[in-house]
Amino acid sequence: MKKIMISIALVASLVFPTNAQAAETKFAGGPLVNLEPSGAIVHIALSNFPKLGGLYLQECVEGAVGARPTLCNGAVQLWVSTAIGASFIPTADIIFKPTATFSAGSTAIDCRMSKCGVFLRYDHTVPGNLTEDQFIALTFKSGLDSIVKPVDEISAKINGSALSTRVPMKISYRQIATLTATSKTGVPLTFASLAPACSLKTMTITALKGGGYCDIAITSPGNLEFAAVTAHFPLELIPGVQTIPSFSISSAKRSVLPKKSNFGEFVTYSASGSCTVVKNIVKAAKGSCTLDISAPGITALYQRLNTQIVTEVK
User: Is residue 243 domain-resident?
Assistant: First the structure.
């Protein structure tokens, strides 16, 4: 079995592929550098997914300029599509598991000596179409690096609850999510949101959608004892919960109910029992009043409001 020995400076882009200008799909995620030789996990979020077909995600040695890679790790290939049998749907938190060494036919590859990366391309349903071809570089630790200088350790929380680099935390559309983070070294950290569905401003994360995934990247520059590291914390976005402000009903006077929900939808009321309602004005006598409350929702943003409140009017 022959071995590839290619001396290449392994300088990786943090997020964006170098040849993705023409591609429709936007790639975000990580980590992409200093990966463990085995057991590495890269969280990937794809946006602006093409409508023409699905995508294959492969680990490959970078091909020649203008040519597709030919040396790829078939064991870790993923199929991203809405079709039955796909590895992941396009909106999922895609888990990619590259390895530092693999075999491509009779060729043994060592990605610590060859320039490897994530290669995106159209799947079998769009043969010969190269417009979605993208190469995103990856680098791996050498055995010496991991012994001489361990990486810094980062821990993070949202609203006081611990985040995981492996299991996404769920946050809802427009939820207030305050981010805090520390590292073992205590050095200043830098923060970034690597997916357009989440904004990050002054340590407050805002989910701009009610579906899909986001990736929060936190970077430590390291110090003399610990190597630099970027930790990636995936977030699963879920629909927001639609509510209305609190109100009270009195038999002494007509009561005004909220016209709009927290997401600006007009609220519809119906009443039974000791009360009647016209639009958002309630007239009630003493006794049990039942209000049915509804407002429309928007798919992938927030849920429909559909609730009932029973109150004793005095």
Answer: no
Q: Give this prediction's pTM.
A: 0.62
Q: Both 14 and 138 in a single domain?
A: yes
Answer yes or no: is 308 within a domain: yes
Cα dist from 107 to 4, 5, 67, 79, whole Å: 7, 11, 19, 24
Residue with tokens 């990605």: 111
The rounded distance, in Å, linking the Cα atoms of 37 and 32 is 12
CA pair distance 81, 87, nearest whole angstrom: 8
b/e map 18-57, b = 16+ CB within 10 Å: eebeebebbbbbbbbbbbebeebebbbbbbebbeeebbbb
Task: State pLDDT tens for residues 207-231.
Answer: 999 999 999 999 998 888 888 888 9
The pair of three-digit structure tokens given for residue 249, joined into one six-digit string: 């009903």
Element holding 217 (H helix, E strand)? strand 213-220
- Helix, coil or strand: residue 148: helix
b (16+ CB within 10 A) / e for 227-248: bbbbbbbbbbbbbbbbbbeeee
Do residues 173 and 288 share a domain?
no
